[in-house]
Design goal:
There is one protein chain. By secondary structure, the protein is mostly beta strands. The protein has one helix at 2-14; strands at 22-27, 33-39, 46-52, 58-64, 68-71, 75-77, 83-87, 93-97, 100-104, 113-116, 122-126, 129-133, 142-145, 151-154, 160-163. The chain folds into two domains: 2-64, no CATH class; 68-163, Agglutinin, subunit A. The longest helix has 13 residues, at 2-14. It is globular.
């Protein structure tokens, strides 16, 4: 198994067209692995989060490969259903509460789609390429439309790296 890994590493170094892959590990104060994230190209990121009880037993293990796509006319909702992030037909990405807009990307055009990519960036694409992005790059990041109305991107350490700052509802 070790030889295979070494050979793969040598091939990646010799072939500049292959995407660079980065793995990040997060440990708690006791040296226990609590998270890891792998980044590569837009379609292959993943994150693993682990938690332990007082006796060092693993009690929670969550693996994700979350790529969210919202096309024109589609939306995602907060867990309680009160907030909606919608990709409108006019190209604008809008966060709504009770029919009122709380936040908007300010993008306008047709055939727009928004992706939460595995590199941790929220990006709206038009027919000719990206038209808006959250300017975030966080291995193992997750997107959360929270019950308080805030749309947030958290990094692997659960730190906020971007938010609409629309919470408090």
């Amino acid at each position: 198994m070790r030889k295979i890994g070494l050979v793969a590493l040598m091939v990646m170094m010799a072939a500049p067209g292959i995407a660079q892959v980065t793995t990040r590990y997060v440990y708690d104060a006791r040296g226990r692995l609590v998270g890891s994230g792998v980044s590569g190209n837009v379609n292959n990121g993943n994150a693993v989060r682990t938690s332990y009880d007082a006796a060092d037993n693993r009690v929670n293990y969550q693996a994700t490969n979350e790529i969210v796509q919202i096309s024109a006319g589609q939306h995602i909702s907060s867990p309680d259903g009160r907030f909606v992030l919608a990709q409108q037909g006019d190209g604008n990405l809008v966060l709504y509460f009770a029919g009122a807009a709380l936040w908007a990307s300010g993008t306008f055009g047709s055939n727009f789609t928004t992706y939460f990519q595995s590199d941790g960036n929220l990006v709206t694409y038009g027919p000719s390429g990206p038209v808006w992005n959250s300017a975030t790059n966080a291995i193992g990041a997750r997107l959360a439309l929270q019950n308080d109305g805030n749309l947030v991107i958290y990094d692997l350490d659960d730190r906020v790296v971007w938010a609409t700052n629309t919470g408090g509802h």
